[in-house]
C-alpha cells in the first residue's frame, strides 16, 4: 500500500460515500472503487461493506482507520519537518561561546532568536577560543562566539558582531584608580595578570603588541585563560590587567575600570560568529544573520582568521 491509497481509504471512511469521496479526492468514482478493492486485496480483509444504498466500515476497517490517520499525519510531519529544517525554521544548533559573550551579546541575541524561531532548539557550551574553533572544524559545533582577533589560520570563517576595546582593570584601592583615564605607560611598573598564550593566542598577542608600542615589557606575575578569571585575580589584589570594556556592564566594588588613552583602532578587539562554510545549516545561517542584524557593526566580508 502507499500513502495515496491510505488517503483514499480515510476519505471514504469519513464520507461513507464513493461519489462524495471521489469529489474530495479530485478523481472519478470508478478509479476510487478499483483502488479501494486493490487495497482490500493487498491487506487480505474487507474494509467496507457495500450495497446499492449504503457504504459502511467493517470491524476490520474501523480498526485500521485510526492507524491509517496516524500514518498520514506522520508522513505529513516528515515532509513538514524536512521543509522547515531546510528553510532554517526548525532544527537544532550547537553553539560554543567564550565567557565574555554572556555580558551583552548572548542576552541580546538569544531571546530574539527564540522569539523568531521557536522550533529551533539550541545547545550552548562555554569554552575557550581554541577549543571552539577546533570543534567547528570537526563539525562538533555548528557555530561559535569567539573573541577576535584570532592568531592562527583556520578553515573556519567569522563575522565580527560586537566591537570592543581594552580598558585597565585595577583593584579599587589602587593609587592609579584615582585617575579617570590612564596611559598604558602608567602601568609599566605594575604586576600584570596576562592571558595564557597557549590558550588565547589572540588576546595574548595583541596585548603584548600594546605593551611594546607603549615602550615596556610587562611584569607578568599571573596568567589566566578566561577574562572572568583575570577579573577575579584583580579583585583579589594580585595585579592589574587589560580586559574587554564590555565587562564593565557587571561592575564590582572591588575593581576599578579605567579607559586607556591613545589606543589605535588596529588594536580593537571584539566578538565574532564563527562557522564552517562547508557544514553550515540553514538554522545556523539564520542565527548568524540575526546576530549581524542586531549588531551595530557593519557586517564584513567573511574571512578566515589570520595572524594579527
Automatic annotation (TrEMBL):
PROSITE patterns, A to Z: HTH_LYSR
InterPro entries referenced in this protein's UniProt entry, alphabetically: LysR_HTH_N (IPR000847), LysR_subst-bd (IPR005119), WH-like_DNA-bd_sf (IPR036388), WH_DNA-bd_sf (IPR036390)
Chain ranges of the HTH lysR-type domain: 1-58
One Pfam family cited in the UniProt record for this chain: HTH_1
CDD domains given in the database record: PBP2_LTTR_aromatics_like
Swiss-Prot/TrEMBL keywords: DNA-binding, Transcription, Transcription regulation
Gene3D superfamilies recorded: Periplasmic binding protein-like II (3.40.190.10), Winged helix-like DNA-binding domain superfamily/Winged helix DNA-binding domain (1.10.10.10)
Assigned protein family: Belongs to the LysR transcriptional regulatory family.
Protein name, entry field: LysR family transcriptional regulator
Species this protein is from: Herbaspirillum lusitanum
Source species taxonomy: Bacteria, Pseudomonadati, Pseudomonadota, Betaproteobacteria, Burkholderiales
Amino acid at each position: 500500500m502507499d500513502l495515496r491509497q491510505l488517503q483514499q481509504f480515510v476519505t471514504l471512511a469519513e464520507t461513507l460515500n464513493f461519489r462524495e469521496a471521489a469529489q474530495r479526492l479530485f478523481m472519478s468514482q470508478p478509479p476510487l472503487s478499483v483502488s479501494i478493492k486493490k487495497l482490500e486485496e493487498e491487506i487480505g480483509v474487507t474494509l467496507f461493506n457495500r450495497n446499492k444504498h449504503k457504504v459502511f466500515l467493517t470491524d476490520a476497517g474501523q480498526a485500521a482507520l485510526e492507524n491509517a490517520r496516524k500514518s498520514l499525519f506522520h508522513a505529513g510531519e516528515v515532509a513538514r519537518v524536512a521543509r522547515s529544517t531546510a528553510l532554517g525554521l526548525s532544527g537544532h544548533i550547537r553553539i560554543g561561546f567564550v565567557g565574555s559573550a554572556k555580558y551583552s551579546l548572548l542576552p541580546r541575541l538569544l531571546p530574539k532568536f527564540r522569539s523568531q524561531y521557536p522550533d529551533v532548539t539550541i545547545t550552548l557550551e562555554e569554552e575557550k577560543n581554541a577549543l571552539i574553533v577546533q570543534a567547528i572544524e570537526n563539525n562538533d559545533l555548528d557555530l561559535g562566539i569567539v573573541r577576535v582577533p584570532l592568531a592562527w589560520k583556520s578553515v573556519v570563517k567569522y563575522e565580527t558582531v560586537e566591537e570592543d576595546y581594552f580598558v585597565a582593570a585595577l583593584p579599587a584601592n589602587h593609587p592609579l584608580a584615582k585617575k579617570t583615564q590612564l596611559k598604558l605607560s602608567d602601568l609599566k611598573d605594575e604586576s600584570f595578570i596576562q592571558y595564557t598564550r597557549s590558550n588565547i593566542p589572540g588576546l595574548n598577542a595583541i596585548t603584548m603588541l600594546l605593551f611594546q608600542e607603549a615602550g615596556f615589557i610587562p611584569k607578568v606575575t599571573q596568567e589566566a585563560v578566561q577574562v572572568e578569571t583575570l577579573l577575579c585575580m584583580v579583585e583579589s589584589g594580585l595585579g592589574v590587567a587589560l580586559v574587554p570594556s564590555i565587562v564593565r556592564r557587571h561592575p564590582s566594588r572591588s575593581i576599578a575600570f579605567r579607559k586607556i588613552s591613545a589606543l589605535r583602532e588596529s588594536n580593537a578587539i571584539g566578538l565574532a560568529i564563527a562557522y564552517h562554510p562547508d557544514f553550515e545549516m540553514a538554522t545556523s545561517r539564520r542565527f548568524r544573520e540575526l546576530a549581524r542584524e542586531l549588531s551595530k557593526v557593519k557586517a564584513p566580508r567573511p574571512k578566515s582568521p589570520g595572524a594579527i
